[in-house]
Write a structure and sequence with these properties.
The protein has a domain of about 130 residues: Vanadium-containing Chloroperoxidase, domain 1. It contains seven helices and no strands. The longest helix has 26 residues.
């Protein structure tokens, strides 16, 4: 059963990673970068401020704690599980499409990018009970960041799913703590 899951994950990865084009080769490295998203983060901060005015600073502290927890949690899992990234997998490494030779670190389960982006998006969704545009911005952000990791060849779909579960779970816990003491 485990072997079937691994093979399915590998084959799905190769399918998704194999859908590449020169335009995406230029765009995807930017989508995976923190710096590209700063205008969106600023807009989210503005929306938080307009809704939660006096609690904005404490919300920023909670989001910071959440990002540190999701990032360090994902690193701890990577070091424990030691699942090679597709680019470091000797069985399929030559089949993996990469951009500019980027291969990522040695291990990939769970994706830190997925954990962090899902942590932020889940927390903000719970916090803001957002309207359509805000919710759509969260979904687009998460989808683009996570798909870029597969496109760049550094994560299997299950790495993304593991990161999503870790980030969402931590966001839910941190949100409950915030809500209990500050909402």
């Amino acid at each position: 059963m485990l072997e079937l899951l691994k093979n399915t994950d590998k084959n799905f990865f190769l399918y998704l990673n194999g859908m590449h084009c020169s335009f995406c080769d230029v765009v995807m490295p930017y989508l995976t970068s923190f710096w590209l998203w700063i205008p969106l983060f600023a807009w989210w901060l503005y929306k938080i401020y307009t809704k939660h005015h006096k609690r904005t600073a404490i919300i920023v502290v909670f989001v910071t704690i959440l990002i540190i927890a999701s990032d360090q949690g994902s690193v701890l899992i990577k070091r424990s599980v030691k699942r090679y990234r597709p680019t470091h997998n000797t069985e399929i490494g030559s089949k993996v499409h990469t951009v500019d030779g980027y291969r990522g670190g040695e291990y990939g389960f769970v994706s830190s990018h997925a954990a962090n982006s899902f942590a932020i998006a889940t927390f903000l969704f719970l916090l803001m009970k957002p309207r359509k545009l805000f919710a759509l911005s969260l979904v687009i952000y998460v989808c683009l960041v996570c798909y870029s990791r597969i496109y760049l060849g550094v994560h299997y779909p299950l790495d993304i799913l593991g990161g999503a579960l870790l980030g969402s779970t931590l966001a839910f816990v941190i949100y409950k703590i915030y809500h209990k003491f500050f909402a």
